[in-house]
Each structure stands twice: as structure tokens, then as C-alpha cells.
Amino acid sequence: MAQQRMLQFVTVEKQTPEKRPPNLRKEDFGEIYREYAAEKAAEQSGRCSQCGVPYCQTHCPLHNNIPDWLRLTAEGRLQEAYELSQATNTFPEICGRICPQDRLCEGNCVIEQSGHGTVTIGAVEKYLTDTAWEMGWVKPIKPHAERGESVGIIGAGPGGLAAADVLRRAGVQVTVYDRYDRAGGLMTYGIPGFKLEKPVVMQRIEQLAEAGVKFALNCNVGEDVSFNALRGQHDAVIIATGVYKSRALEAAGANAGGVVRAIDYLTASNRKSFGDDVPEFDSGELNAEGRRVVVIGGGDTAMDCVRTAIRQGATSVKCLYRRDRTNMPGSQREVANAEEEGVEFVWQTAPKGFEVNDSGAISAVMVEKMRLGRPDATGRRAPEVIDGADYSEPADLVVMALGFEPEDLPTLWGEPALEVTRWGTVKANFRTHETEIPGVYAVGDIVRGASLVVWAIRDGREAGDAVLTYLNAPAQVAAE
């Protein structure tokens, strides 16, 4: 009977959740995808082929047991399906919303490769967890016994929170330190609400706080408290700071008024969604309303910026990217959503400089056209400038979304023993995430460089387990 509910991909077509019409969704910051109904979630889950070697699971950084919870969903066993998804993923409702499934699980679905259209894994995962919250299946975190050891976690993003979850469930005392006034990292202040509504993040943070995780917010390590002090206060420390230093563009006029960093622009917008007082937004400095906006970059951050500008009421929004659509790093799904909402992509272009008016504000971007040449060291075709094809693109607001780099933590924290790579990322063991300093671990983007939320979650979970092994080691030695 159960098998009859599966293998429906031959007769049932792929159907993604309905999107709100572009003319409506660009008027607010609500999520654009509607929720599956129970029948539709079961129908789409039943398309899974239950293949013996599930490539979807293999290509998921968390190795979620996707085929099994799809089968349970198809059978209507939703609570069991949720519990199975939660077993390997600290934040399944967040991954269901913001993971690039087209590059991970869904992009490697066997029936997708055979031409039948992928199973909509992300949408089912989102549906399962949202249903679990509504039905009360998400249980409070209650350790079986309290432990005396404490762990300090620097950074309240997905990696730090995932580690806190693992450690607190084991009864360890956990304090999370973060420079911002709210926990969540880029999930809170970097990703717009139309991809990840903030109550979805806040409910997980509240769950951790109710479980006894302490949050020391507005705390900048290296200024408000020293790294050495944290090491002295805790039995182990996990570095999960992420990477927040924006890559700069060395070009004439780059410091003009109206040229802003993507992280500042997105943070201001997200703060407004919380109802915060944001002077830089109210003054127009970080607000696209009524302005000609140019976003420079081709990653997911650039996609967040162009779609935010549309919702703020920009006169026009253009995105400059030096390669073509096929070679851009951002999600193709996000590009399609942006185009539907009115964003214009200008492929194979790059800024050469900026024209500045008499008041010191940006008036135009000097653009040079590119063509793709031979592959570079990464295997991607390198962009080359086309001589004599420059032109000016009028602009009132330019958002630089060129990616992020790690801050110089050894210098900022006065800790030269903290080893970093030539890229500035912290050196850590690939499996245990321990650094060269005993009892100090590092996870997420500060180790990998700018990456995906799901990878940070995986690192945090692994580091949490490694820290438990480390904390148990003295007791084992004493017992011997």
C-alpha cells in the first residue's frame, strides 16, 4: 500500500508552490511562495522514486534522510516525517526556504536527471516544519541532566546557533556572544523577509533561550570583552563570527555619496522590518525609493539587493555582472524571480569608475563591456574587457555586492596564536573543527569563506559533537 503512494513521477507532474503575482509581492517583504496544502504536499512527495542510491541525500551537506521523510509525508505521517527531518537538521524550516535546492538536493534528483522534473524537496521540508510548529510537534529543549562545563560561542549566526543547540541538549552551559542587538546573524539582518520572514528565525532563537542558552548581545569581542577572557571563563570556545568585511572596488569615485555596501543596505532594510529607528534609511542614504539603482555583483547577496530595491520603490533597478547568466554564482531561481519583479540584468559588464556631481554624490557608473575568454584557474571562463565599448549608466544609488572577506581576527582579538590561511580564514580541522589552540573551535564562513547557511549548520553540529568529546576526555582519563 505504501509503495503505491510512491513512484508517481510518471503520472504526476512536478508542481512547485504557487508564487504570489509579481505586481503584488513587490509591494511588501512577505515571502513570495504560498504554502502547500496537505494533499499537494503528499502528492508531490509521492513522486519520489525511492532510489537505492539517493543522490539528493548525498548532495545535501547535512545528508538529510530525504527519501524516507518524503515517503512518510506521502503516507500522511507528518509528525514522523518532521521528526526525521529534524534529526539531522537544526533548522529545517530555514533550509526549506533559503537553501539553493536547485544546486543541491533537487538539482541532483534522479528523476530530474531522467527528464521527469525534480521532487520539490525544499517546499515539502518547509511545509513539514511549519506544520510542526502549528501543531505543537516542535518540543522544548530539555537536557536529561545539567553539566557543569560551559562553552562560549562567538557569533549568533547559523553555525553558532547549531552548535548551541547540540551542546544545550547535552546539558552543557552555553553563552553566545554577538555584536548585534538580535541573534541570527545574516539570517536576521542579511537575508530579506521575502526569502525568510523574521518570525521564522526568532522562534528558533526563543526556543534556545527558553532552553537556557544565554545570549550576550551588543558584545563585540576584542572591544567589550577580550578573547583571552572568554577562554578563561569557558571550558571551550567556538568561533562562529561569519565574514562581514565587504570586498572593496578600487575605482575612481568609489567613495562618493550614494555608493554603499550591500551589508549596510540590507541590514537597514531588515531593521525597518523590525520597526527599529534607522536614521540612515529615513534620510534616504540606504533607501532606494524614487532612485535609479545599480547593483554590482552576481551572487545571492546581489539578488537580495536588487529585489529589496524593487520593494522600496526604486525608479529603476539594474544589475551589472561581468560574466553571463550561465556563469553567475547566484541562484537561477532568484534571477528569474528578480526579472519577474522588474529587475534588468546587464550581463558581461563591469564598473570602471563612478561619475560624481558637484555635491559629491554619485551621478553615473562608468561601465565597460566584457566578453568571456579562456577558462581561468577555477575552470570558469575569464571576463575580458572589450576596448572602446565603455558607456555611462545613470545612477543615484549604487550597491556594492562583491562578496565578503574575513576580518583579521588575530589582530582584532590580540591573539597571534590563532592561525589563519592566506585568505584570512581561520585554520581548523576539517572533521573536528578544532583550531591550533586547544579547546578553541571554528565553524562556518570564518573557516570556509562566504558560503551557504546549510554548510554553517553542518559545521556547527559537528563542532558541538567534537566539543562534547573534548569535555568528556578528562573524565575518561580520570576513570582510567
From TrEMBL:
Pfam family, one: Pyr_redox_2
Classification via SUPFAM superfamilies: alpha-helical ferredoxin, Nucleotide-binding domain
Keyword Metal-binding in record: yes
Recorded coiled-coil stretches: none
Domain FAD/NAD(P)-binding: 151-460
Keyword Metal-binding recorded: yes
MF terms (GO), sorted A to Z: 4 iron, 4 sulfur cluster binding; metal ion binding; oxidoreductase activity
Alphabetically ordered keywords of this record: 4Fe-4S, Iron, Iron-sulfur, Metal-binding, Oxidoreductase
Alphabetized InterPro entries for the sequence: DPD_II, FAD/NAD-bd_sf, FAD/NAD-binding_dom, GltD-like, Helical_ferredxn
The protein, known as: Glutamate synthase (NADPH) small subunit
Domain annotation Dihydroprymidine dehydrogenase: ranges: 25-136
Species this protein is from: Roseicitreum antarcticum
